[in-house]
Structures are given as C-alpha cells and as structure tokens.
Amino acid sequence: MPKMKSHTGMGKRVKVTGKGKIVAQQAGLRHNLEKKASTQTRRLTGTVELAKAETKRIKKLLGR
C-alpha cells in the first residue's frame, strides 16, 4: 500500500500545536467589513482552536 499524500492546501490553512491541537484563522473577515461592527471584526482577529470533531478529519488530511 503506498503512502498517503498530505493535503498541501490544508497545511497552509491550519497549524498543529505542540499538544496536537489544530489552530486556524477565524472565518468571516474577508469581505463586507463595512457592515460589520468594529467589535465583531476585533473579535474575529487572531487564531482559534478548532472543534474536536474536526481535528480527526483534518489530521488525516495532514498525514498525521
């Protein structure tokens, strides 16, 4: 059986912490920013830990 290829696109979007948690940028900060309140855009900055339900699927794509 050949090796699984890692999904390079997913590798560019997420990072894995030292303890194995998946961290990614929050959604909703690409367009229509004039309509959104400044408090909302401030809240959306930075990275956030993804849900445990998604970590299994993402780690499989990353080849871990």
Automatic annotation (TrEMBL):
Residue runs in coiled coils: none
GO BP annotations, alphabetical order: translation
Superkingdom: Bacteria
A GO term from the CC aspect: cytosolic large ribosomal subunit
Pfam families linked to this entry: Ribosomal_L35p
Keywords for the protein's UniProt record, in alphabetical order: Ribonucleoprotein, Ribosomal protein
Gene3D superfamilies with a match to the protein in the record: 4.10.410.60
Keyword Isomerase: no
Record-linked PANTHER family: 54S RIBOSOMAL PROTEIN BL35M (PTHR33343), LARGE RIBOSOMAL SUBUNIT PROTEIN BL35M (PTHR33343:SF1)
Family: Belongs to the bacterial ribosomal protein bL35 family.
UniProt-recorded name of the protein: Large ribosomal subunit protein bL35
Biological source species: Micromonospora chaiyaphumensis
